[in-house]
Structures are given as structure tokens and as C-alpha cells.
Amino acid sequence: MNSYTLTLMTVLVLYLLANLGIGLYISKKQAKLDAEAGTGFINNYFIGGRSMGGLVLAMTLIATFTSASSFIGGPGVAYSKGLVWVYLSIIQVPTAFIILGILGKKFAIISRKTNAVTVTDYLKARYKSPAVVIISSLALVLFFIAQMMSQFIGGAVLFQSITGLPYIYGLLLFGVIVILYTTIGGFKAVVTTDTIQGLVMVLGGFLILFTIISVGGGFQAIVEKLNVVNPTWSDPTVGGTTPKAYVMSFWVLVGIGVLGLPQTAVRGMGFKDTKSLHSAMIYGTIVVGFLMLVMHISGAFAPAILDPSEITSSDYVVPTLVLKYMNPVVAGLFIAAPLSAVMSTVSSLLILASAAIVKDIYLNYIVKEKNDSEKANPEFDKKIGRMSMITTLIVGIIVFVFTIYPPDLIVWINLFAMGGLECAFLCPILFGLYWKRANATGAILSSVIGVVCFLLMTTYKVTVFGMSPIVPSIVVSIVVFIVGSYMGKNPDEETLKLFYS
Amino acid sequence: MVPKLTEKERNLQMKKEALISLGLYVAFFLWWYFTGYGLAGDTKGYTYIMGLPLWFFLSCVVGYILFCVAVIVVVKVFFKDFSLDETADEGSGEEERG
Fold first, then answer.
1. What are B48's strand-pairing partners?
2. What are the domain boundaries of chain B?
3. How many CB atoms sit inside 10 A of residue B97's CB?
């Protein structure tokens, strides 16, 4: 290990240890508070006792849906395609706003009334159907495991390309840390570390754009150079190679569709009061827009200071920039940003996968003969506590092993993970909140047919008017939901009263 | 103290807020589309501002700033604070119902 790598590694290891320390500290502090307040384990471990303030809510929302691709993959594509990829990333500017604006207060109220801590809890209360609960829990666990694996792989590959150390070392380092603090600290540790990680991402954005502009000799010089080396950089169709319909599809995939991702929707159940929600809408918009704009502009500007011969794959654009132009301390701080993106996404998915297994499946269907008072006794609460932590740990270990030996099936599932989740959850979540007629028949048919339609269209590369498969699949799931709901029974009085009175 | 609304008022307010959010979302989409594809498609040679093509400057840089301002205004003006735990309904016992 040369001194450059050594310095860089020291910065990174310190940062990762700080994450672990903070995660564990918070969980210890929280455990004490919970013991005093006497609130149940489930409520604390899986939703942090609904105590998030505005900044934490905004940051955890952003950190969860900003993954490794916003730091590595996206800027890499912007490097070759130019400004159109910045234009595309800007589609995500209003995403945090719309999620909180449409789901926030509704979810907050419903989850307080029904004691819900997961999206599945909400679906159970709304549709009263075991099939809905089981289908959604299974879809969630399966897709989440695939997504976590791909995040880990992304982080480990980045680590390897920056430090030159074997893949497994990087994975051991950040993988073990994120699994540990999530297992021990639960939701509270997840959102607290998310907040720090989100701030580190913002810092990373500053660092890389600043580096590029100063190396490139200022804004004007970079733009002039780009006109020479990449003449189509300012053309939104990239000389006709990037169709409009394809770009527009992202308004569904990373726009409206995100309302259907359980990992972002569940944030609506965890905040403290309306004031927190309102400020999160503002912070969230400002921060997510900044990150997207800065990271992708950096990618689009990079051709001015990199030689094409240095870039073997678009995923190496950012690592090459870092190694070539950043001093090791700055490089360490910058690399902390994409690793933060990985860890914050994984931690949120991990705690939800564990919630799906313990809360949605085990508590609902395996110990269902116990009545509520038995479930409330401290002995049982303790048992559930141990079980939840062990479940989180086991899911974490499974993902970890999958990252080292990726099974073909999981690699395949990952191709559909984000779109699949959206097809499965968007209609049941959204219509359930705002449409009285929505019922279990619609929800089940819509989830199953939507996901199958998306799988088939993606596998057989069927396109409709040049749009990516997510758009027609979501349309199908909406139509099926409406038709299904008219075929099924009206929701009962109790449900209507709970949700709409 | 946050004000308590009745169940009905809360639902009405939330519906209003959801519609306003959707409206602002659509407005941003239209701005994005027409300043972006709209301007870039019209001209043969682009107009440039600070070295960036006008379509990009308006859709991405100005669009982002405008949207942030719009969110602040909309949230301050139309979004209301109210209690999530309790309602002003007669004899409402939200806590017990869970």
C-alpha cells in the first residue's frame, strides 16, 4: 500500500468507524429513553417511536433513494452523453416534495390510528386481506435483498477501483459496519446515520465540482474545451441517439413511481409532527436538487479534463477523476459520499426487510393465536426484540454472502427490483389513501399483473412508443386496479370510517 | 400548541394539500419540458448563457431554483399545521382505538 492509498484509507476508515460509533451510541441512548417511556419494542426498533424532525426526515428520504448510481453510474453516463443526463437527473428534483406532500400526513395519521410501522401494516388495515399482506411482504423481501446486493457490489467495486485492494476488503469494511449498526440500533440508528451520510454526500458534491472547475481552468475554459472534444454535449438528443420517449419514461421510474417504493413511503410514518413534515419538504427539495445537479454536471464536464483513453467503462469516470486530481485526504472525504449512499440505502432496506419478516409475517400469521394483551406483555416484547435483531442480522449476512457469490436468480431479480416494487406497491398505496372504492381484489390483481407485465416486457424487450417498460406496466397496473376494484366488494364501514371519515 | 381539527377538516385539508402538491408537480414538469425540449428543438444554433445552452440553463438551473422557491411559498401558504394524534371531534379517543 503506497502512502496515497494509506492516507485515503485512514480517512475512510475513520469515517466508517464514526458511523458505527454514532449508530451504536444513538441506539443505546434511545433504549434508555424507551425504557423510561415504557413504549413497545416494535414501535421503537422499526419506526423510531415516530420522532423524526424535519432535517432527519428530509435527509433519510434523500439518502435512501440516492444510491451508488447517483454518484458513480449517473455521472459516468453524463460523461459520454453530456447535458441530457443532467436534464434527466433533474426529474428527481420534485420527488421528495411529492412523496411527502401526497403521502406524508395521511400516512402519519393512519399509522398512528392503527399502530402501523410498515407499509404492509397500512395495506393490511386498508384491504383486510391476508393475500395482500403475504404478496407484498414477499415481494418486498425478495426485491430488497436483490437491491441490497447490487448496492454492496457497487460500493465494493468502487472501493477496489480506488484503493487497488481486493473487493472483499471493502465489502468487509463497510458491509460489516452497516449490518452492525442497523441490527443493534434499528430505525433510529438508520435515520441518524442517514442524516450524517446525506450531509457527507452534499460535501462530496461540492468537492468534485470544485475540483473539476479548478483543474479545468474555470467555467468558460471547460465549456470551450467541451465544444471541441464532445460536440454533442449540449444537444438533448445527443445527435439523435437519445430518444425523447426514453428520457420521459424517467418521470415514472424516478418520479411519480417513487410514491410506490415502500422504503420511501414508510418515512411518512416516522415523523414527529406537521412542522417537521413541512420543513422536510423544503430541505428535501433543495438538497436533492443540489446533489443531482452537481454530480451530473461534474460528469458532463469531465471530458474537458480527462482523456478518453483513460476511461475503459463509464463506471470508471468518477474514480479516475478522484485518483488523478484529488489529494488523498480530499479523495477519502469524497469517496465517503458514494459509500454513504450505499450504506444509507442498504440500512433502510435491511430494517424494512426485517420488519416484513418479523412484523408482517411472523406476528400476523405465525403467532396469530395470541391476543393483543398477550402480545403486549413484557416477556413477549423482549422475545420479539431478540428475534427482530437476529432477523436483521441474518438478512444482512445473507446479502453479504450473496455479494461474494452472487446467485444468478438474485442478479436476475435485481434487474427488475425498482420497477417491480413500483408496479407492486404504487396503486395499492395511492388508491388506498384517496379512493374509497379501492379494495383487495383490485390491489391483488394490480400488484401481480403489474409485476408480471413488467417482468415480461423487460425480458422480451417490448417497447411501446419507445418508452421503457415501466411506463406501460404502471398504466396496466392502474387499469387493472380500477377494474378489479369495481369487480370486488366495497370496503366495509369500519375501514371507510377509519380512513375517510 | 398545534391546533386540533375535526376528522372531517383534517381529511379535507389533506386532500387539498395533495391536489396542490400534484399541481405544483405538473407545473414543474411543464416548465422542464417546454424550456428544455421546447427550446432545444426550435433553434438550429443555441443561445448561450454563461457558456451553457439556454435550454439547459432555463430547464435545469433556473428550473431548480424556481421550484425551490415555489415549494417554500406553497408550503408556507397552503400547508397547515394540525395535530396528527388528536382531533377536535366530540369524545374522540384516537389513542384507545389503536
1. B53
2. 11-80
3. 11
Q: Is A289–B68 a contact, with Cβ atoms under 8 angstroms apart?
A: yes
Q: Do B68 and A281 touch (CB under 8 A)?
A: no
Determine the residue among A89, A103, A109 to mutate to test chain B binding: the one whose Cβ has the most chain B Cβ atoms within 10 Å. Answer: A109
Here the cell at position A12 is 475512510
Question: CB contact, 8 Å: B7 with chain A?
Answer: yes
What's residue B25's pLDDT?
96
- In tens, the pLDDT along A25-34 reads 988 888 787 7
We find that the CATH architecture of domain A3-370 is Up-down Bundle (1.20)
At residue A105, the 3 state secondary structure works out as helix
| Terminal-residue alpha carbon distance, chain A | 66
Total-model pTM: 0.90
What value does the mean pLDDT of chain A take? 89
Show Cβ contacts of residue A77 under 8 Å, excluding neighbours closer than 6 positions.
Answer: A85, A299, A314
As a dihedral over the C-alpha atoms of residue B78, residue B81, residue B82, residue B85, rounded to 10 degrees, the angle is 120
Residue A168 cell numbers, joined: 472483499
Dump the DSSP string for A107-154: HHHHHHHHT--SHHHHHHHHH--HHHHHHHHHHHHHHHHHHHHHHHHH
Query: CA–CA separation, B80 vs A70, rounded Å?
Result: 33
Q: Where are the domains of chain A?
A: 3-370
What the block records as the C-alpha cell of A311 is 476511461
Hey, is the C-beta of A86 within 8 angstroms of any chain B C-beta?
A: yes
Decide if A259 contacts B66 (C-beta within 8 A). Answer: no
